Amino acid sequence: MLRDKNLVPLSRQHQHALALCVRIDRASPIRDSDLAAWQAEMVQLFQSEVAVHFVAEERVLFPVAGGFAELTGLVAELVAEHAALRAAFTRAEVSALSSTDLTDFAARFSTHIRKEERRLFERLQELLSTEEMALAGNQLEEALRDAAQVCAVPTDTTSLRPAK
Question: Which residues have a Cβ under 8 Å from the Cβ of 156 and sit 6 or more positions away?
Answer without folding.
Answer: none
